[in-house]
């Protein structure tokens, strides 16, 4: 079974942040990182599932930086500029929503966009990578300033989602949980 080492089966224990000890690219590992933050194809970001049967390739992220790495890097960026006085929760929320608007702008008037963005230029992809990064950076700092431990909160929320939407009950349906009768 070929994996990138961070494939999770869906069990909460397997979805904990990956350890970042002992290596050397600034985030604590030697994982190759390209301009838009994606790992190379050769770094084995395709998964063979079900005992070696080839599946359609599934895109996966690089294991680093972790959410805690991003929190720390942004905290350093903010401290170095004496910007904490501007980065209160409400301002961070507004900044994040503004960046979501910039993501939306890249999609507007295009009609439906296929997975993998096959018709987008490299420059459009890089723009999208930058705007999505802005959203994430502000989201992580907002969580920090609100004292929400985001990686653990995500694990708890996903557990709740699984309870609300049992796969056996909702398979193939996008209905809201309130629409199920039993
Ligand atoms: N007060 C600020 C200003 C910027 N940033 C950081 C976080 C974001 O990742 C990025 C946002 O920078 P801009 O506000 O310049 O927004 P863009 O990079 O999206 O530029 P533009 O609006 O020209 O597309 O910089 C920050 O932390 N705090």
Structural overview:
There is one protein chain. The chain is mostly helical and 182 residues long. It has a domain at 67-109 and 122-164: Helix Hairpins (Orthogonal Bundle). Helices cover 42% and strands 2% of the residues. It has 5 helices and 2 strands, in the order ββααααα. Strand 1 and strand 2 (53-54) form a beta hairpin. Helix 1 packs across helix 3. The protein is globular and about 50 Å long. Bound molecules: 2'-deoxycytidine-5'-triphosphate (DCP). 2'-deoxycytidine-5'-triphosphate (DCP) is lined by residues 83, 86, 102, 134, 137. Its EC number is 3.6.1.12. It is an enzyme of class 3 (hydrolase). Residues 1-63 are annotated as: Disordered.
Concise structural overview:
With 182 residues, this protein is an all-alpha fold.
Strand order of the largest sheet: 1-2
Order of helices and strands: EEHHHHH
Fourth-level CATH superfamily of the domain at 67-109 and 122-164 = MazG-like
The general outline is globular
Indicate the CATH class of the domain at 67-109 and 122-164: Mainly Alpha
Keywords: Cytoplasm, Hydrolase, Magnesium, Metal-binding, Phosphoprotein
Organism: Channa argus (Northern snakehead)
Region (Disordered): 1-63
GO molecular function: dCTP diphosphatase activity; identical protein binding; metal ion binding
């Amino acid at each position: 079974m070929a994996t990138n080492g961070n494939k999770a089966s869906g069990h909460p224990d397997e979805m904990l942040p990956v350890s970042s000890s002992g290596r050397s690219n600034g985030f604590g590992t030697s994982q190759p990182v390209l301009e838009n933050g994606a790992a190379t194809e050769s770094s084995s970001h395709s998964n063979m599932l079900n005992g070696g049967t080839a599946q359609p390739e599934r895109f996966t992220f690089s294991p680093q930086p972790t959410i805690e790495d991003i929190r720390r890097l942004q905290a350093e960026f903010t401290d170095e500029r004496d910007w904490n006085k501007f980065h209160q929760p409400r301002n961070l929320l507004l900044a994040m929503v503004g960046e979501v608007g910039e993501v939306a702008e890249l999609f507007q008037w295009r009609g439906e966009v296929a997975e993998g963005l096959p018709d987008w230029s490299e420059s459009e992809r890089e723009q999208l990578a930058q705007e999505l990064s802005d959203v994430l950076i502000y989201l992580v700092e907002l969580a920090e300033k609100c004292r929400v431990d985001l990686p653990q909160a995500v694990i708890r929320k996903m557990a709740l989602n699984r309870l609300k939407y049992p796969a056996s009950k909702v398979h193939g349906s996008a209905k809201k949980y309130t629409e199920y009768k039993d």
